[in-house]
Specification:
The chain has about 100 residues and is α+β, with helices and mostly antiparallel strands. It has one domain. About 20% of the residues lie in helices and about 40% in strands. It has one helix and six strands; from the N terminus they run E-E-E-E-E-E-H. The model has no long low-confidence stretch (mean pLDDT about 85).
């Protein structure tokens, strides 16, 4: 079976949480790695999610290593949507974005 891996950067404007993780995470940029597998028997090329990982790089000057945290892509999407709510509301009310 063929798998593909993609990475993309997401930005949170505010601290956020994911339901499956205990910690609150600070605002900032996070690398998300997604592994998908090719679905067999399809008449067209289609992939399904196998694994999603949030990669936490250490801050400059810190000795702790990079963390790889398994996450639920639906939880990530919900957290990103929650992060956009204050900005959308401010724009709709004629205020400038923070």
């Amino acid at each position: 079976m063929h798998n593909r891996v993609s990475k993309h950067l997401v930005t949170f404007r505010s601290a956020f949480y994911l339901d499956s993780l205990e910690d609150e995470w600070p605002a900032g940029d996070y690398t998300i790695e997604t592994e998908e597998e090719l679905i067999d028997g399809s008449t067209f090329q289609a992939f399904r999610n196998v694994h999603t990982t949030m990669i936490i790089y250490p801050k400059p000057g810190r000795r702790n290593g990079t963390k790889f945290i398994s996450i639920d892509p639906a939880e990530l999407a919900a957290a990103l949507a929650r992060d956009q709510i204050p900005l959308t509301r401010a724009e709709n009310e004629g205020m400038s974005a923070p």
